[in-house]
């Protein structure tokens, strides 16, 4: 069976508020799907449900045909769902290079051994170096994660996600808060990841120019419901989306 990620009637309620409401959608390899919609539409909550940070009130999530609805976030990560790490959950005082090496090591299944120099694993070092170059952090390798600029921290988050070799890449506003010159690096990186047609890529993004340049498909959430789904040109051009949904994204968020 080809790998697919599917949500069926996925729903979460916070008290009386239904933040994600019966969302049924299938994501396939070789497709980058942008999830758009006004502020508070439920995009991040939908992401959190898929990655396991939140548990559904109703509905289910299937990954490669397996029902993962009850699985913990770490189990989903091991199954291949990649979500950018929060650096605060990692090793902020370790260097960029050390963080990436640890993630590469974790993906390899070897345990971190503080006292055993892992210089013996040249293959892992080469892989970590390759990822550092891929995210343009090679020249920041010795810097503590916590001392990085905001843009470089986002790049490190992406590096750690790549290191785990996920089947699904989930990006939640990957360029948010970045300076204008930092944005292209991350966009090029996502475009590069898209070349691997075996991956499913999900992107929550407010910036419509970013969505236009990267997405193969757009889904629109509004009040927690899926209100549009299709090829970018079609979805963007549809009057209902233009007027009622995309038009309301405030400039401050774009
Ligand atoms: N843990 C929570 N408890 C209560 N309400 C929540 C919680 N998380 C999200 N919500 C509510 O659910 C709704 C959807 O929020 P969500 O952050 O998913 O929207 P979004 O589309 O990602 O918005 P934005 O574009 O502003 O990031 C909002 O009304 C929000 O206040």
From TrEMBL:
Keywords: ATP-binding, Nucleotide-binding, Transport. Transmembrane segments: none annotated. Involved in beta-(1-->2)glucan export. Transmembrane domains (TMD) form a pore in the inner membrane and the ATP-binding domain (NBD) is responsible for energy generation. Residues 5-248 form the ABC transporter domain. Belongs to the ABC transporter superfamily. This is ABC transporter ATP-binding protein. One of its GO terms (molecular function) is ATP binding. It comes from Bradyrhizobium xenonodulans. PANTHER family: ABC TRANSPORTER ATP-BINDING PROTEIN (PTHR45772:SF3), CONSERVED COMPONENT OF ABC TRANSPORTER FOR NATURAL AMINO ACIDS-RELATED (PTHR45772).
């Amino acid at each position: 069976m080809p790998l697919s990620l599917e949500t069926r009637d996925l729903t979460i309620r916070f008290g009386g508020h239904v933040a994600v409401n019966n969302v049924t959608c299938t994501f396939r390899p070789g497709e980058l799907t942008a999830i758009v919609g006004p502020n508070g539409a439920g995009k991040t909550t939908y992401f959190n449900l898929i990655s396991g940070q939140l548990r559904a009130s109703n509905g289910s999530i299937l990954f490669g045909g397996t029902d993962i609805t009850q699985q913990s976030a770490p189990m989903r990560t091991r199954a291949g769902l990649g979500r950018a790490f929060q650096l605060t959950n990692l090793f902020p005082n370790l260097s960029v290079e050390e963080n990436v090496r640890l993630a590469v090591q974790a993906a390899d299944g070897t345990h971190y051994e503080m006292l055993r120099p892992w210089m013996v694993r040249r293959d892992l070092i080469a892989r970590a170096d390759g990822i550092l170059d891929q995210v343009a952090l090679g020249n920041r390798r010795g810097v503590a994660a916590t001392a990085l600029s905001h843009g470089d921290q986002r790049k490190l988050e992406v590096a750690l996600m790549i290191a785990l070799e996920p089947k699904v890449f989930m990006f939640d506003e990957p360029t948010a808060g970045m300076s204008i010159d930092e944005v292209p690096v991350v966009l090029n990186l996502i475009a590069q990841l898209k070349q691997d047609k075996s991956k499913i890529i999900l992107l929550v993004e407010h910036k419509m120019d970013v969505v236009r340049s990267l997405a193969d498909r757009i889904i629109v959430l509004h009040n927690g419901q899926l209100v549009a789904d299709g090829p970018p040109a079609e979805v963007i051009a549809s009057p209902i989306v233009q007027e009622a949904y995309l038009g309301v994204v405030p400039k401050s968020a774009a």
